[in-house]
Amino acid sequence: MAQFKAGNGRLEIRLSGSGGQGVITAGVILAEAAILDGKNAVQSQSYGPESRGGYSKCEVILSDGEIDYPKVSSPDVLLALTEEALAHYGKTVKTEGLLIADESIGEPSGLQEGVRVLRVPILQTAREKVGREITANVVALGVLA
Q1: For the whole model, what pTM was predicted?
Q2: What is the mean pLDDT of residues 103-115?
């Protein structure tokens, strides 16, 4: 993350996928790591009533200064692990932002001008290299780092 700089010492990140993929846990880990690194961080989450397979998202704001509003409206970075997450949030990534999408989902469309796209085999790596797809959240944190 050190190589990706957002304006004003603030970085807004949205992690999205489906229930059971661990995006909320990944967001908690990311926020706690930032705090241990001396940054200010806030994490919020939202998910459907289903514990597995339902929709979920996690937002993390990292800052050198105070964080006055804990919600992300136009993320600097979007991680999308499902087609639904990409379709719903892809258009919200700010100009010059970064979209990280699992390579198994479709091509993004309707992005702001200048959005960089990184397609990574997150789910495949978790399944084949780690041996459990449930570890995709930790693989995704590695990509973010």
Answers
A1: 0.89
A2: 91
